[in-house]
Amino acid sequence: MGVPSSVTYAVIGAGIHGLSTAWHLAMELEAKGKGGGKDIVVLDKSGPGAGASGIACGCVRNLYMTEPLHAILRHSVDVWMSDPVRLGFQQVGYVSAGEANQLADYEKLHASQNRVGYPSDLYSGQDAKKFLKGIWPDFNVDGIDVALHEKPSGYAGTRQAVAGLAQKCADHGVRVLSGVEVTGYDMQGGRVSKLRTNQGEIKVDVVVLGLGAWTGKHWDMLSLPATLDLKYRDGGTVKDKDMWTYWRLLEGEIYIDQPYRTADDRDPPVLHVELMTTPVRENGDPQGRELSDHLYVYWKNGAERMEKPGVQGGTIPIKIGPKATLDPYGWANDAYQAEPEFADYLTGAMAQLMPRFKGHRKNFKERRNGGIGAFTPDNVPIFDWVKPNVYMIADSNHGFKMTGVGKLVAKLLAGQNRVAELEPFAFSRFAEGRTFGASNSHCPWV
Prior knowledge:
Layout: E1 6-12, H1 16-32, E2 40-44, H2 52-55, E3 59-60, H3 69-82, H4 84-87, E4 89-90, E5 94-98, H5 103-115, E6 120-124, H6 126-135, E7 146-150, E8 154-156, H7 158-171, E9 175-178, E10 182-188, E11 191-197, E12 200-209, H8 215-221, E13 227-231, E14 237-242, E15 245-255, E16 270-275, E17 280-281, E18 290-292, E19 295-301, E20 310-321, H9 340-353, E21 372-375, E22 382-387, E23 390-394, H10 404-413, H11 429-432
Parallel strand pairs: 1-2, 1-12, 2-9, 5-16, 12-23
Antiparallel strand pairs: 3-8, 4-8, 5-7, 6-7, 10-11, 11-12, 13-14, 15-20, 15-21, 16-19, 17-18, 19-20, 22-23
Helix pairs in contact: 1-7, 1-10, 3-10
């Protein structure tokens, strides 16, 4: 399949966002009688899922203290459930637990989720402990004072999801072209008129950026600002903030001796625990070496990349800074591999929470990992036009779960005047005093 000389819509990046946008845009154009998939091309310099989308842990959840994200996730679950088999979605739910210092945050989060039609249950005090033990009888609930159960959430196999979305594109006539790298943009009257690629020029009407870690690189190619001032709702201002900050992701797999099941022999919900004042000890031993002064961990049953039973999980990413080496990408780059301490931490935290994982450090799967994410100035996604005909989906590494972003963006691209769910994430928020503030978490994406 050759590179076209011209196209109406060019989507750059064949990850979750690029593929979902192209698929939904094809359907929107067909429904409105304005065209279809033949008018859309997806370009990726490697291939579908070559970045973070293809190696993510695969959690689909709505645990965000940034309330406008809750509606985005409601649409995303609708997309996952539209074809759970092809997209590999397991709707097992998502359980998050924390200490008393997070109770007020959880109460707001719970109210917001239910307000947008994303049902969840909240438990506190002894009810939280009882709820957790009802699912995992060996759960060590010491120090846990709040638990949230998101019922629509779950997880998906990353490769299966990417393959499913690529097939959806193909079903609607969208061309997905691998090995086509965009190397520059020709501008005319402030708009992008042509894409320069390693396989020739492409005249375009509309460009969609779904680039993940490579967003900053194309931001520079479009001559957009490297820093900006952030204005907050309380009147405060932060000057000259880096537009992009790169973080190194920490996720991995652990083989298990016995099936990881609930008390009633079901696939457990995805579990997330943040104990902000509880140290993590080596091997989960109360007398063991302190690995960290706080606990932040999530895990689920393994979906892919495991040749025998196991679980997949992770913890807080590590900040790299405003510059990072993007090629070769994370997992293929020697500089970004997880240190042995990550395996110590992950297995220690899991054993500390559930004795069933005691002694599992030896079962950690040694493999290359280390995805890279490009985070925005306030660690919250940006969904907006950055040139008159260039729409940017910059997910700040919130992305794999958010298949609904493409569904919403497609409505805009097909002619809908406004999509309310996307408006809080406009680039203009930084100048207008609507910058999102820090959350009560050690993690930048909560």
